[in-house]
Amino acid sequence: MREPPSTLHAKSVRYCPAVLDHDARLFEVSSPIDLCLRVTLGSEKEPPRLINAAGDKSTIRPKYLGEMVHLIPRKEWRHPDRPILQIFTPYLFVADEPVYMTQFPPFSHFRSSTLPGLMIGGRFPIHIWPRHLMWAFEWYDQKQNLTLQRGEPWFYVRFETQDPSRSVRLVETEITPQLREYITGVRGITNYVNRTFSIFATARSRRPKKVVIPKKR
Question: Among 17, 53, 117, 134, which is disulfide-ready with 38 (CB 3.0 to 4.6 Å)?
Answer without folding.
Answer: 53
